[in-house]
Automatic annotation (TrEMBL):
Example of a GO MF term: zinc ion binding
Cell compartment(s), UniProt: Membrane
Classification via PANTHER family: E3 UBIQUITIN-PROTEIN LIGASE ATL42, RING-TYPE DOMAIN-CONTAINING PROTEIN
Pfam families given in the database record: zf-RING_2
Organism encoding this protein: Rotaria magnacalcarata
SUPFAM superfamilies for this protein: RING/U-box
Name used for this protein in its record: RING-type domain-containing protein
Keyword line: Membrane, Metal-binding, Transmembrane, Transmembrane helix, Zinc, Zinc-finger
Residue ranges occupied by any RING-type domain in the UniProt entry: 47-88
This protein's GO CC annotations: membrane
Top-level taxonomic group: Eukaryota
Chief localization: membrane
Length: 171
């Protein structure tokens, strides 16, 4: 009976999370603009989901990342996957759609709020990551290298590593 209850709780929690994520994806879809193509695009761009060419008169969605798709192709994709099919951009995070917390009230008193620590953030897919302050481009160390074109350093491949030479007698 205990095992059954535990499985039921896990399944129910998973279903609730999927429901929350699905509702958040629907909310994000309302924020993604629909664009009608009025003139022929300068390049023949195609929808990577249906592989059809985007033509004049088509209704497309243009994501923040700049990728465009037919709205009837990308809407079901985004509802199920919640990321751009090409670059894997998380649409919930890109459009700042919050997913309600999955922590219940009883456990909440023992858990620190992640908003109290500015170096910790929660993505819309409920995974928490720590932001390393040294990973910003301004704080990264600069690496410089020089390449010398010295013809005296040119070696034949077999001379660099004698193990690459074949001993014809050993065959």
């Amino acid at each position: 009976i205990f095992y059954y209850c535990q499985r039921h709780r896990a399944r129910t929690a998973k279903d609730r999370l999927q429901s929350r994520l699905s509702n958040a994806a629907k909310k994000a879809l309302t924020k993604i603009p629909l664009v009608n193509v009025h003139e022929n695009p300068p390049t023949e761009e195609s929808c990577v989901i249906c592989l059809d060419i985007i033509k004049t008169g088509d209704t497309i969605r243009k994501l923040v990342c700049g990728h465009t798709f037919h709205h009837h192709c990308v809407d079901p994709w985004l509802l199920n996957h919640r990321h751009c099919p090409l670059c894997n951009l998380d649409i919930l995070a890109a459009y700042r759609v919050a997913v309600p917390s999955t922590i219940n009230r009883r456990r909440h008193s023992n858990v620190h709020n992640i908003n109290d620590n500015p170096s910790v953030f929660s993505l819309a897919t409920t995974s928490a990551s720590r932001v390393n302050e040294q990973s910003t481009p301004a704080n990264l160390p600069t690496i410089s290298a020089t390449i010398k074109d010295d013809s005296s350093d040119v070696r034949i491949h077999g001379e660099q590593n004698p193990m690459f030479r074949l001993d014809e007698n050993s065959l």
